[in-house]
Here is the input.
Amino acid sequence: MIDVFARPSRLFWLLHSAGWFGALLVSFVSALAHGEPVGYWKVSLLLAAVGFIVTLGLRWFLRFGADRPLPRLIALMIAPVLLACGAMALTYTVALVAWCEENRPGGTLGYVAYMASTIYMVMTWVALYIGINYQRRLREQTAAAMAASLAAHQAQLRMLRYQLNPHFLFNTLNAISTLILDRDTAPANRMVQGLSAFLRHSLDTDPDQRVTLDQELAAIDLYLGIEAVRFAGRLRVEKAIAPACRAALLPSLLLQPLVENAIKHAVARNLAGGTLRLAADCRDNQLQLSIADDGPGASQGEALPAGSGVGLSNTRDRLRVLYGADHSVEVHRRPGGGCEVWISLPFEAAPEVDGEAAEDAR
Here is the structure.
């Protein structure tokens, strides 16, 4: 248990002083209400001063037992609290004898009653000290837990994002190696230049930040430029992007692994190549993304090809970390052949864009 009052602080002295000044006022006003003389203020002041001092001593015990469980801390405080209350009761007796002897209690029961009232005051002080200390400690632990959770969240996003690079590099470098072995240097050079541009874009983009759909499509164009050289005309690309969606925010390089997956299953396996279609629309305050191909797909009863690759599982993991349950990823067979991945995300426009895109999304 960390004692947030372990060092003198402005908050502690403010609360401590205000508390005992309030006790002074309550004692004096209560005495006047019961017919005590105005001179009783001296008794109230002395009691408040003694309470101020003895509770500072209790603070030392509370700091000493700060790391103990609450039951053991309470057991530790019993004797100091009784001593503090005894000191206040003795002060009360001495003050009455010195200044208000005519108002002394008529018997032992009167002193016992006052002893009980001092126990109430001191225990209130102790409870407030422990309660404020616990509340502030809980707040600090919550802030630390949130910071740790955020750090873990960012680390997971970075891991998922950078997991894509070796997968993509493996395929591209294999293609470049093949072109070099075939002495086809011009396409190989174009692929190297395209790969350099794509990796520069990838490394310059913070994986923790989101980008607009326009920026994401620009990155996809860099990737498709590499694949266009690789497949020498066998790759055809179509786009259907609603203007209202271009300013929508989404995780950087979200679409690249899905595009790579579609090319792997629709174009690479087909001698005639294939068509990749990218679509985006905004409906019901959701950004709807689609990556479709016209490849062989899967026969009835066969597992969908996109469901087993690292691309789709990586995408699901990233979106789950970022959006929780507020997203969906679905994979479907297309009636004419091929597969289609549908992604739905909450629509949010980039801050610098005015509200027109958000209104169109609704």
